[in-house]
Amino acid sequence: MELDRHICSRARLARDARFDGKFFIAVLTTRIYCRPICPARTCKERNVVYYATAAAAAEAGFRPCLRCRPECSPGCPAWAGTQTTVARALRLISESGLEDGGVDGLAEHLGVGARHLRRLFLKHLGASPSAVAQTRRLHFAKQLIDEATLPMVQVAVAAGFGCVRRFNDSIRKVYHRTPTQIRRLARQAGNRPENAYRFHLDYRPPYNWTRMLEFLAARATPGVEVVQAGRYRRTIAPDGHHGFLEVALQEPKNALQVCVQIGDPRSLFFIIERIRRMFDLNADWSDIEQALGADPVLAAAVRAEAGLRVPGCWNGFELTIRAILGQQVSVKAATTLAGRIAAAFGQSFSPASGLTHLFPTPEILAKADLTSVGLTKARAETIRAFARAVCDGRIRFEGVVDDRALREQLRAIPGIGNWTAEYVAMRALCDPDAFPAGDLHLRRKAGGCTERELESRSESWRPWRAYATMLLWQSSPAPPSGPAPSSSRYSPADRMAPGSDVARVGRARTAD
User: Which distant-in-sequence residues (6+ apart) come within 8 Å of 169 by Cβ?
Assistant: First the structure.
């Protein structure tokens, strides 16, 4: 990845938070690398080198700054908007590191050679896959040392180190301090509940937290999720360990404050990475604004909704069930049905206010009598067929290499159509280019065009069509550019669009 030294220099001197995580500053005199927002005294330009990633700076022999804490910076967005081998590899590394077969296993999973994968990483990120995974592991370990009260043995396990000796050696080599010395420097809060962990996850401003909460609140499954007093809270069960998480905004610090309560700290890396994706923390609004702001249909929404993100999800299976329930009914009705399913088939669990259940597993829903909670026979069979596909391993949301293949697998299930597949790709896979063009609400907001016309127009929005979708859903209707769609029937997508709680009229379709 080529960096413009002039732009990096201006951003560094201005300490511009919008560039946080997009590059790192390595100081030649101290051999330390920093974020663009580092509060330390500004160095002379001749004494700094710029790197696209923290891993590249670490590979060059620089150590992380203890003041600006590079481990807290937003993820590198360089490949977030493209379907490339590097992008898919980074997503897999964020899910499980290199635990399954190392670089060779990762390359085989991606369908490329290990040497070619290393060459791509060095070209575009300035570091090898192993260095990227190692840097992420070290950064997460540093967060746990600073922000948690876990014993160092458990920190080593949670961060993915094989043994404590390796953990101690790695920390000492990179930070020139022992883990215990680093913890003494950290300003930790007082007593915390047992198995409770707090993290600060930074983002690049602006961040439209209000719209994020509005979207999640309208679709929160009663008993499983709740939005209260500006906070999002939900139950979780990674690897069978029950817990809950809570997320709130820390606007002055350009960060989200996350509280996780879980019995097994080994799940923490997975949980934090999932929260990053769920709240779209790696997005770079400046790139999105530049790509979409020039279109007359989107220009006003881009100005009005600065910092809008695409909400992800905690669990792809759960999100798909919610999308199926949302076909041809209002958002409110789908939320009510989701709550009934959770109450009838989910496990009771009340760790915090407003939370009463865990969402049912695929194994339970594959055999459940869903008509007992108000679903039609056709809709109940669609959910059971989808749950069986997940149980059999035909559909999985972890380790996805080909987003298009997953879309096809979803559409192969009777009752799941193109809109549902695109909506799932948009939120469960965090595909920034997913686009439910069949959404009637979306077509109306775009000026009353047909699905084909909207698909054609959206070509100029690539690779940010998911953000264009969110902007259109939030915008005021555009003046019609032509005759309204001839069909008077509502599409299932209408039911999921914000603010569209009109009861569906006419005969329901089961194809979508």
Answer: none
pLDDT in tens, 275-312: 999 999 999 999 999 999 999 989 999 999 999 999 99
Q: What is the mean pLDDT of residues 399-413?
A: 89
**Nearest residue to 347 (alpha-carbon basis) of 266, 236, 271:** 236
Residue with more model confidence, 3 or 60: 60
Task: For each of the domains in the chain, give its residue range(s) and CATH number, in order of start.
Answer: 5-67 (3.40.10.10), 85-185 (1.10.10.60), 209-495 (1.10.340.30)
Looking at 8, 34, 38, 76, which residue is catalytic?
34
CA distances from 375 to 3, 338, 344, 378, 382 (A): 54, 10, 13, 8, 11
Q: Tell me if residue 430 is catalytic.
A: no
Nearest residue to 499 via CA among 467, 478, 479, 473: 473
Q: Which of 439, 449, 494, 512 is catalytic?
A: 439
pTM: 0.85
Active-site annotation holds for 439: yes
